[in-house]
Design a protein that fits this description.
The structure is a homodimer.
Chain A lengths: L1 E10 L2 E5 H13 L2 H7 L4 H15 L4 E5 L5 E5 L1 H28 L1
Antiparallel strand pairs in A: 1-2, 3-4
The structure holds a DNA duplex (30 and 30 nucleotides).
Chain lengths: ~110, ~110
DNA sequence: CAGCCGTTATGATAATTTATCATAACGGCA
DNA sequence: TGCCGTTATGATAAATTATCATAACGGCTG
């Protein structure tokens, strides 16, 4: 029996950041494109794109800078705001995970 | 921006206990019926019934003792195994919540 | 300088999941 | 014996999520 958890931040009842969404942002930064990130997370491009725009619209902040066309077809990169969210949330999630695992061992 | 979380236990990739499911079990114990618990949690009877049977089948343990007919139409009560799960999981969730809230304040 | 290529962008549709509806059976009691 | 509120469950509807299809973009190559 294995413990699992999810962690997210809401604004007015709507998810703006979550473990998966932050992984998506990080993958965009590392692959340099939304399509690359989608492939890495085994998710459809459309799904990734939609989540990004949801986050941006709900936060009121631009997270991903995109460009179409060009030699490599285009690409995407993270804004400073996104990098900040990714760093903070990653730390947050890592610490909660550690505590949750320890508590699970203690109690069950 | 408000922090939220969920916590659950899996067996072979399938959820057997979660915060909501444990609330459901507790509501059954307190109301004395599945239908009462469903009403309290603003969920359809069928949904509640299905979740209970999922949990029982995945855990391989009987959680709810039911009876049909009679003056009050029937009812349901928790088995000792269910009471044990409820107690442990409730404590687990409460402690994780406390830590998650503190970490959120520290980091964000 | 026309066409290619891989990307962003987005409407439309399919698939899956979740919730609701409808109905039968139960059994104590008036 | 009939009534009532409950359990139980198949069938359907609604909502959510994922996939398909297609247009536009623009540097680069031949």
């Amino acid at each position: 029996m294995q413990p699992k958890f999810n962690l997210w931040l809401e604004i007015e009842g709507e998810v703006v950041l979550s473990i998966w969404r932050v992984e998506l942002l990080r993958a965009i930064g590392e692959t340099g494109s939304i399509s690359g990130a989608a492939a890495r997370l085994h998710v459809h491009y459309r799904t990734a794109w939609q989540k990004i725009h949801e986050m941006e619209s709900r936060l009121g902040v631009k997270l991903v800078e995109t460009q179409t066309g060009g030699r490599r077809g285009g690409g995407a990169s993270l804004t400073p705001a996104a990098l900040d969210y990714v760093a903070k949330f990653t730390r947050y999630a890592a610490e909660v995970e550690q505590v949750a695992n320890k508590l699970h061992q203690d109690i069950f």
